[in-house]
Amino acid sequence: MKDPSGRHRSPNTLLRALIRDADVTYEALAHSVRAVAAEAGERLRTNRSAIAHWVAGAEPQAMTAVYLTEALSRHLRRPVGPEEIGLLPPFQGHGVDWHTDTLRALHELGRLDLDMGRRRALTAAAYSVTALAVPDSDWWSHRAAQAADRPAASRLKVGRRDLHAVRDMVKPFSRADQRHGGGHARTAVVQYLTSDVAPRLGGTFTDDHVRQDMFSAASELAYLSGWMAFDNAEHAAAQRYFTLSLSLAAEADDAPMAGHVLRAMAHQAVELGHPGHAVRLARASVDGQRYTRAAPRERALLGVVHARALASAGQPRAAAGALLRAEDDLAMAKPGDDEPGRVFFFGEASLAHETACVLRDTGDLAGAQREFRRSVRTRKASSFTRTHAVTLGYLGSVQARQGAIEEACATWARALDAMDGIRSARARQTVTEMRRALSPVRGRGIPIVTELDARAAVHLTESA
User: What is the crossing angle of helices 425-438 and 447-462, to 10°?
Assistant: First the structure.
């Protein structure tokens, strides 16, 4: 074929081979490219013809090439670099500089996120599995020592009362996320982190314990912003906040907080179809003091995500072992334990939900249905509405996969009821999957199917 200048281009045999290895149609790959771009805040019109042109030798634009490699990574379930799809010279992704100054990075990230005129700089890069590797052990010890020796940047006095005030603000933000979804109030979290907490991190602390605890609190706020972004499918922003949270946790020398963040990063990698990356992150989350210094409830949380990562990577036996350990850890958690507030949501219902996901991903649909039902039955839906809606969506999908379409429709109707007022891309995705599952039976005139499909279509339109 010829490019716009009239030159002949050779077919991109590397791209063609990868698409063949992924066993994906041009239409399906185009859909994936559009989805990755949407996560980065960009609406593309990529279609099967565009894929065909690229295979024939045309080159996508730089950012579209980033989206293409990420889409292929998810289909192949391994990282794909630009050189593997015949792009020369290789473009540069948004790598993570683990040695940048944490406070400067916090200031810059918050400024980008809050300034609508500049926010495109934050969302311009997609989530990338190739952009992140867990730092080595020397980095952790060096970061903690460096933070302890950092000179104060201001005369602001920071004491125990300041710390309590920050911790008190984390609680309502976390509860709002659980009830209303990650698309609600994330800007308020970033505003508070940037305007109120960040200046205190550069102040003069009454003692080193206050300094460490304040950095831990800041890490939790950065994590929360990342988790809310993840829930709302803003995956590039989520990745940036998670890595910032990890740096803040390292400066606080707070191993359990670091484990908590690595667990969230593993969860994101599972959801985005990067099993190998998810396993590495999950293993790091339960490594050494990140696990041993954590409270039993938090150890259980780390464990169930480790199990999900193992299940996604095709290791059912190891996943089952991780689940058993998580169950034992949760059984050790008692009322009155000295445990961080960030794990307030994790109990029997959450354990059942994650167990069901592991069973579903390892092919045990009957077991998954049992555990999803247990999760729905034991969760306080009024406080944990977002996850309740997602669980119902997953339960309906498992029922549909077993051929119980009418039962699935009844479950999905409950899910749609629960989603009223929820701003969560994860919840919305269950509705998209609902309509996809109903597609084969949509024209059969089954009243409950027709009614539910119409409700789902309205929901997707109104929540867009």
Answer: 150
> Do residues 190 and 110 lie in contact, with contact meaning Cβ atoms separated by under 8 Å?
yes
> Of how many residues is the chain composed?
464
Distant-in-sequence, close-in-space partners of 99: CB < 8 Å, separation ≥ 6: none
Residues in contact with 106: Cβ distance below 8 Å, sequence separation at least 6, in sequence order: 193, 194, 198, 201, 218, 222, 244, 248
Which residues are CB-contacts of 284 (< 8 A; sequence separation ≥ 6)?
Answer: 134, 259, 262, 290
Cα dist from 41 to 37, 127, 173, 200, 414, whole Å: 6, 12, 24, 32, 30
pTM confidence score: 0.83
d(CA 85, CA 130): 15
Tokens representing 264?
Answer: 């969230």
Per-residue pLDDT tens listing for the chain (464 residues) = 444 444 446 888 888 888 898 899 999 999 988 988 877 667 888 999 989 988 988 888 877 887 888 888 888 877 777 777 776 544 444 456 677 888 888 988 888 888 765 555 555 456 766 556 788 888 888 888 888 888 888 889 999 999 999 999 999 999 999 999 999 999 999 999 999 999 999 999 999 999 999 999 999 999 999 999 999 988 888 999 999 999 999 999 999 999 999 999 999 999 988 898 999 999 999 999 999 999 999 999 999 999 999 999 999 999 999 999 999 999 999 988 899 999 999 999 999 999 999 999 999 999 999 999 999 999 999 999 999 999 999 999 999 999 999 999 999 999 999 999 999 999 999 999 999 999 999 888 889 999 999 999 999 998 87
